[in-house]
Amino acid sequence: MHNQDYMKDLIEREDLGCDIALECLYNLSTLDKRLLETLKDGDEYRSDEIAEILERDQSTAYRSLERLARCGLVYKEKQNIRNGGYFYVYSLRPLDKIKEEALECLEEWYRKMKKAIEEL
After folding, report:
1. How far apart are CA 15 and CA 93, in angstroms?
2. Distance between CA 1 and CA 10 in Å, rounded?
3. CA pair distance 58, 44, nearest whole angstrom
């Protein structure tokens, strides 16, 4: 499918919702979306807990969590262990912050795309 066909298909979709918008803005995989859905309950999770919930290898869950943290969709917080060492817990950022940043990203993308098209 050509990019033009893909964009046209997206625009014409009746079910264009939040999940699809975030998927497009952040290039989310199916696993990323499942992970975000899991984090919606507001709890903090370690990567091994997420891996168990999603029935995936811990390294796979960790890579997805790290990517979502870099995108700014989840928080990553270091927790120290009393006898030494540490681990990280992940939680979903507040939805209003995600929404605000996603709208800013979309507006910036629109401005850049409009300028590029005008310069054709």
Report:
1. 25
2. 12
3. 16
Side chain identity at residue 30, one-letter code = T
> What CATH number is associated with residue 69?
1.10.10.10
Task: Provide the residue range defining the domain that includes 68.
Answer: 3-118
Contact 60, 50 (CB under 8 A): no
Q: Report how far residue 97's alpha carbon sits from residue 63's, in angstroms, rounded to the nearest whole number.
A: 23
Of the candidates 88, 73, 58, 82, the residue with the CA atom closest to the CA atom of residue 26: 73
Per-residue pLDDT of the chain (120 residues; tens, 9 = 90+): 555 676 666 666 666 667 777 888 888 899 999 999 999 988 999 999 999 999 999 999 999 999 999 989 999 999 999 999 999 999 999 989 988 988 898 899 899 999 999 998
Our count of domains for the chain comes to 1
Judged by DSSP in three states, 79 sits in strand
